[in-house]
From TrEMBL, chain A:
The gene is soxD. The lineage of its organism: Bacteria, Pseudomonadati, Pseudomonadota, Alphaproteobacteria, Hyphomicrobiales. Its EC number is 1.5.3.1. Pfam families: SoxD (PF04267). This is Sarcosine oxidase subunit delta. Keywords: Oxidoreductase. Transmembrane segments: none annotated. GO terms for molecular function: sarcosine oxidase activity.
TrEMBL record, chain B:
It comes from Mesorhizobium escarrei. InterPro entries: GCVT_N, SoxG_het, TrmE/GcvT-like. This is Sarcosine oxidase subunit gamma. Pfam families: GCV_T. Residues 111-197 form the GCVT N-terminal domain.
Length: 98, 200
């Protein structure tokens, strides 16, 4: 399986570390919403098909990546830096979600 | 600076570490291995949005103009610089004291300067079979059009993290963690046996 790092180009999967499901939304650290924490820790979509994932190019540029991987075929349909995600966080903040 | 001892020394008993010709060299030496021992090895990192100022700072201090693009780099023989990650650069000088030269150029508002001079070992592999030998270690494309002179790559061999800069058409400088350098060097020697290698 090859993952095309936006910085390094196509690299063997051995250079990457899986950082978990990319669909999770972590509650605020002070949150006492047990359902939200339960969902964050345990609930997984487990799709047979495209899956949002977080990977790190740990054996290369070390960037954290958002990857969409097909769980049936291992086909990777998109790879992007998570680094831009602070914009999403800023929007959530503006909308009072954080 | 504190005087450094190479992790490749002392080498009284180990054939691979001694200068001279080794392996199947009767048909010619096709790779040359050496330790370049730069005085300064730095890692520079720009805060998001400050990358261009950092690249300008590298030019101010070293005279090296980095081309645009991921992994782009440049070398003039004495000094070398290349990108190895988004907003991050390795900058190397034969001379010591490069970190202090950057101190007033890369300000805390632009980014960070980390002196790795004692933490990395620089190994040079040169010769017509350099690409061939490195291709046995790293799953990246070493062909000149894909990996131009001056460019850098971050990759690994088993879990030995390596930054590789092409410093000539058939020459590569590999930066590895100092603590792995001795075993990595020996692995390079074993990989070079079939083509005949010389240790300089
Ligand atoms: Zn990468």
């Amino acid at each position: 399986m090859l993952i095309t790092c936006p910085y390094c180009g196509p690299r063997d999967v051995i250079e990457f570390t899986y950082q978990g499901d990319g669909n999770r939304e972590r509650p605020q650290p002070a949150s006492q919403d047990l359902d939200a924490w339960n969902a964050y820790v345990y609930d997984r979509l487990n799709p047979a098909g495209d899956h949002n994932e977080i990977w790190q190019h740990s054996g290369g540029c070390r960037a954290h990546l958002r990857v969409v991987r097909n769980t049936l075929t291992h086909e990777i349909s998109s790879v992007a830096f998570t680094r831009g995600d602070h914009k999403v966080a800023a929007r959530h903040k503006a909308e009072g979600k954080l | 600076m504190v005087e450094r001892q190479s992790p490749l020394e002392p080498a009284p008993l180990e054939l691979e570490l001694r200068t001279g010709s080794h392996g199947d060299f009767e048909h010619g030496i096709e790779v040359i291995l050496s330790e370049t021992r730069p005085g300064s090895i730095l890692q520079l990192a720009a805060w998001p949005g400050r990358e261009k100022e950092l690249i300008a700072g590298i030019r101010t201090v070293t005279g090296l103009a980095l081309p645009d693009g991921a992994g782009a780099g440049s070398t003039d023989g004495a000094r070398s610089a290349f990108g190895f990650a988004p907003g991050k650069f390795t900058v190397v000088d034969e001379a010591e004291g490069l970190a202090s030269a950057f101190a007033n150029v890369v300000t805390p508002a632009i980014g960070t300067v980390t002196d790795l001079s004692h933490g990395r070992t620089a190994i040079r592999i040169a010769g017509p079979k350099a690409e061939w030998v490195l291709a046995k270690f790293f799953a990246i494309d070493f062909a000149l059009p894909a990996f131009p002179v001056g460019a850098g790559r971050s990759t690994m061999h088993h879990d030995v993290f390596a930054q590789i800069q092409r410093t000539g058409a058939d020459q590569f400088d590999i930066y590895v963690f100092r603590s792995f350098a001795r075993s990595f060097w020996k692995a390079l020697c074993h990989a070079g046996e079939e083509v005949g290698y010389e240790v300089q």
